[in-house]
Amino acid sequence: xxxxxxxxxxxxxxxxxxxxxxxxxxxxxxxxxxxxxxxxxxxxxxxxxxxxxxxxxxxxxxxxxxxxxxxxxxxxxxxxxxxxxxxxxxxxxxxxxxxxxxxxxxxxxxxxxxxxxxxxxxxxxxxxxxxxxxxxxxxxxxxxxxxxxxxxxxxxxxxxxxxxxxxxxxxxxxxxxxxxxxxxxxxxxxxxxxxxxxxxxxxxxxxxxxxxxxxxxxxxxxxxxxxxxxxxxxxxxxxxxxxxxxxxxxxxxxxxxxxxxxxxxxxxxxxxxxxxxxxxxxxxxxxxxxxxxxxxxxxxxxxxxxxxxxxxxxxxxxxxxxxxxxxxxxxxxxxxxxxxxxxxxxxxxxxxxxxxxxxxxxxxxxxxxxxxxxxxx
Length: 377
Ligand SMILES: [Mg+2]
Fold this sequence. Notes:
5-stranded antiparallel beta sheet
């Protein structure tokens, strides 16, 4: 392989739209029906472009991307480690390196996972608070919509009493909503709960006394993570005969604070955010998880490109659980090489991410608005 020189890099602040309003979770206010998923387009002198989500925000883009112009993309790839030497363009670099080999990104990582990659709907927020005249009905409607769209796993938010409702009233609403969703989706769809740390350990145990029989697949961020509290919670789950997994880590920027939990065997699903820590780091974490009999389930919330990256991990390694599907669809990209059916994603074998720029949307909405580094290609 000769050199592939980087000629120009563009960053567009792509829009993600949700078909429904996304309400609050235990900590944050309404998330709205729109988000942003900034996309890097990295062009080379052989006419092949890498695309990927921007990592580190526009500060990282302005700092790093001008320095990449004229450099060889292969300087930024170590087959043992992954993409090195860039944060902002990491994902676009993975794409172009994989394309240079005519392979999907997952093929650079491994081939141990199934081509049928599990995914779950992560969009069931506190929609009851958006529809106060028919709160439970609305929660059930959204759960039924997820099943109708083919999902075999749904995650719902709990922790209404943390700040949005009076504590006892919020607790009761959580219990009612979980029971109603389980009844709506039936016994064959996985159900997870996510409290965004809105409970403490005794509150979480009290909640599970009420919802434990609803067959909860995983409990995510029920309370701020400590070895002591998770040991109590894990013992409590097992004493009651529930196999509920413990998932945590999305608020951490690195794995170090979670290692004590992993070493103690108290973390079943590691959830560091894919956009925040990157794929090169997640490649390393996949091995680390194996060592501690933990699985990966990267946080991708609000980022559709993050989901696509996460799916490549699931295809490459055999220790990833379901991947989080955000409510927002990004208009400027198309997952041409990733198909959705039967409640799972499937790769066609297309090179790179299997994601292409929607040039029509790009020309209509983003051309002229994007940030450009370097000259013409
Ligand atoms: Mg979460």
